[in-house]
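> forwarded from #structure-qc
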């Protein structure tokens, strides 16, 4: 639907016009989200209820559901950015020296602190990826970097991503609330009030998550374009093995009830 709306009203859609890139986006989206599922083994921030009991349904269901994460976030961001495209923005002004060093230190802190003290620092997990990756993109591929654009006085892409994260988060929580197979949050704080299954304050996390999605996918595309066939095959096999391991971790640590088919 989003692809059709983008094509109809703004003349282009990455999912319709770049099918190979769109397929890669969907395929890499599954291990991308499974990375956070693996982190949740330690964080214990959500669990699953009412999933289908047969493994041959449940595991493909994981893959298919998680394959929509990156396309939803980025296509929605494209739509919002297109709607904001009439605003004028300045030319590239470069990237300040020292930003990468500080961003890397902060990103590592946002990863390590939740792993050490998950009940206190778990919200930080939704910001560490773009802090580690985005400064690299700003220097290596400035045309792919929303952070480089922000430092050049062109915040439109960042604004579109933040709004996209909030919009997709609200839609996901709405659909989840009425679903038979669903996730339930077990975060230590805040306890309420809630909108659907999510505490109100928790929706804030969807905004930086959208920034992470953009950073990760652009970084992956840059590395994929520069990789040889052997390297690509190794990446595919490695991600496949990691995904199977993550499926097992979800079943072992996060699934609380199964429903026979």
């Amino acid at each position: 639907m989003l692809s059709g709306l983008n094509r109809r009203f703004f003349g282009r859609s990455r999912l319709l016009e770049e099918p190979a890139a769109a397929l890669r986006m969907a395929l890499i989206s599954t291990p991308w989200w499974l990375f956070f599922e693996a982190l949740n083994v330690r964080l214990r921030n959500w669990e699953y209820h009412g999933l289908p009991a047969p493994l041959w349904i449940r595991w493909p269901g994981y893959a298919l559901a998680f394959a929509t994460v990156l396309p939803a976030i980025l296509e929605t961001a494209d739509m919002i950015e297109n709607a904001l495209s009439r605003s004028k923005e300045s030319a590239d002004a470069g990237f300040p020296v020292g930003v990468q060093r500080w961003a890397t230190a902060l990103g590592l802190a946002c990863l390590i602190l939740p792993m050490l003290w998950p009940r206190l620092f778990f919200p930080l997990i939704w910001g560490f990826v773009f802090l580690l990756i985005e400064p690299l993109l700003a220097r290596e591929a400035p045309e792919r970097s929303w952070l480089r654009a922000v430092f050049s006085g062109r915040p439109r892409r960042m604004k579109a991503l933040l709004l996209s994260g909030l919009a997709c988060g609200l839609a996901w929580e709405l659909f989840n609330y009425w679903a038979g197979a669903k996730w339930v949050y077990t975060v230590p704080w805040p306890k309420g009030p809630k909108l659907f299954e999510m505490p109100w304050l928790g929706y804030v996390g969807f905004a930086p998550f959208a920034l992470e999605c953009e950073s990760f996918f652009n970084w992956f595309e840059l590395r994929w374009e520069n990789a040889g066939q052997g390297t690509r095959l190794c990446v595919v096999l490695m991600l496949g093995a990691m995904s199977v391991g993550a499926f097992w971790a979800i079943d072992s640590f996060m699934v609380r009830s199964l429903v026979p088919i």
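QC bot note: The radius of gyration is 19 Å. The chain is about 65% helix and 5% strand.
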